[in-house]
Amino acid sequence: MANENKIDDPVDMFVLFARFFSVVAKNLEEKYGEEGLELLKKSVNEWGEARGRDIARRAKQQGKENDLAAYLPSYDMERSELFGYETKYGKDEINQDFDRCVFAQTWMDADEEKYGRIYCENIDPAICRGYNENLECIHDHIMYKDGHCTFCFKMKK
Known about the structure:
By secondary structure, the protein is an alpha+beta fold. Helices cover about 50% and strands about 20% of the residues. Strands 1-2-4-3 form a four-stranded antiparallel beta sheet. A hairpin with a 3-residue loop joins strand 1 and strand 2 (about 95-100). Helix 1 crosses helix 4. The chain is globular and about 45 Å long.
């Protein structure tokens, strides 16, 4: 049997990030109310767009076009076993279906999905905008409501 939750086990960086995000969110909400949560949403969007621009630079450095095909191979965040997902490549789109997400699980376990939703509903569309203004992210299903997240990445016509 694995030694789960031992005090001396390191905590995964994804869990630490989610916990930090919640602390910031709670403090913004406590001090500024709904306006604080809107500021957090704005911050997630700005940070996501900056990440997207970095992904575009990475693609360019690798000699790739700033297009749909280079998006995921140039992505800035590795996937650990704490994420469970399937990726399907279509002719003009990429579909991902996540059935496990350490971020969402951390927020749900702490009864802080209110804050997690701010991150989850905004980050991927913002990254796409930063990567290429014509790349859209359709996020039809979310872990908190549907038990899985779906993403469809495609170029706007």
